[in-house]
């Protein structure tokens, strides 16, 4: 059933699926999204239905990515090249952005999102390397 | 689709998948809609908790139909789905009797769902005799067998604990508030556990079923993610025993899935 042959790649894809599903569920639920935003240092009084609508939209994007990771697990690895490349670039941009936010004057309340984004970038790098997708590399 | 050219089976399975998906999506992601439809539902976190749980079960059944759409019909799916839908129909009838509820949409839809599944199974000509596999769960791998036994043990413990103390689950979960609706929801979850136990006993006799193990892996992942979200959102009001069961269930199902997935 699983077409990815490398065990470490399988583990990474499964971990990323769980991580994205976790963030997806976190953002789609109003209560959990509120708790998450509060932990970033925002007062709960400033969170309204429109904010929760936006986080729910974001949550669905995370859930779709979780489904995409499951799809990569079930397809031959070379068919996932474009998706992995997009995730690698996307996670790099995201992690740089969150590092800059964390380093900012009001951004240091909670480092977990920054750490999670860096972790995703590192894991995507490992996945990309192990799959032989980096241009110029022969496995 | 479904490895058959029979349009009736394809149509029935498509509609069954649509119903499972619709209920899963609404109960997991639009609980307000359900609460508006049923005036006896209290709009609180306990109701949301149980609606999410039932929604996840419906969604996992949809995943099973999706799986069979690619791989072909599997008797194992029906060994789980028909009992679970039948028990849910009984549970809805009990709910309506208790509350005097006039909204029978859910009851009608789930009876239709049951009919769709029964018609598909009968039309597919699957035998009702279940030949015994040469070894437990149809595998020689000891680890998979032990995990299968643990899965059966978890289901039995869940059912027995409900029989001994029906209100125990809510009492041990500070996040939940006790009410007649909440206690009835726990009965519904126990009925789902009975269907899971039936599917596990089926697999013990016939062998691991690709669709059931894949559904279990999806369910275990979703529940673990939900547990992680719950532990972040309400870190001091969870149920440690439930958390242990969810984590153990995840380990068991993932072990079975990854050790046997090449056969699915």
Explain how this protein is built.
The complex is a heterodimer of chains A (139) and B (264). Chain A is built from five helices and no strands. Chain A is mostly helical. In chain A, helix 1 (7-28) packs across helix 2 (30-39), helix 1 packs antiparallel against helix 3 (49-74) and helix 4 packs antiparallel against helix 5. Chain B is mostly helical and 264 residues long. Chain B is built from ten helices and no strands. The two termini of chain B are 17 Å apart. The chains are: A mainly alpha (139), B mainly alpha (264).
Task: Please describe the topology of this protein.
The complex is a heterodimer of chains A (139) and B (264).
Chain A: H1 7-28, H2 30-39, H3 49-74, H4 81-103, H5 112-130
Chain B: H1 7-29, H2 31-37, H3 45-71, H4 75-99, H5 105-123, H6 142-164, H7 168-171, H8 180-206, H9 210-233, H10 240-260
Helix pairs in contact in B: 1-3, 1-5, 3-8, 3-9, 4-5, 4-8, 6-8, 6-10, 9-10
Mean pLDDT level of chain A: 89
Structural class, judged by helices and strands of chain B?
mainly alpha
Q: What does the main sheet of chain A amount to?
A: none
Number of strands of chain A: 0
Write the H/E string of chain A, N to C.
HHHHH
Share of residues in strands of chain B = under 5%
Q: Quick one: which chains have the greatest interface?
A: A-B, 19 and 21 residues
Number of DSSP-assigned strands of chain B? 0
Shape of chain B: globular
Q: Helical segment tally of chain A?
A: 5
What is the overall silhouette of chain A? globular
Gap between N and C termini of chain A, in Å?
Answer: 24 Å
Mean of residue pLDDT of chain B? 91
Number of helices of chain B: 10
Number of domains of chain B: 1
How many separate domains make up the residues of chain A?
Answer: 1
**Estimated radius of gyration of chain B:** 18 Å
Work out the helicity level of chain A: over 70%
Strand proportion of chain A: under 5%
Q: Distance between termini of chain B?
A: 17 Å
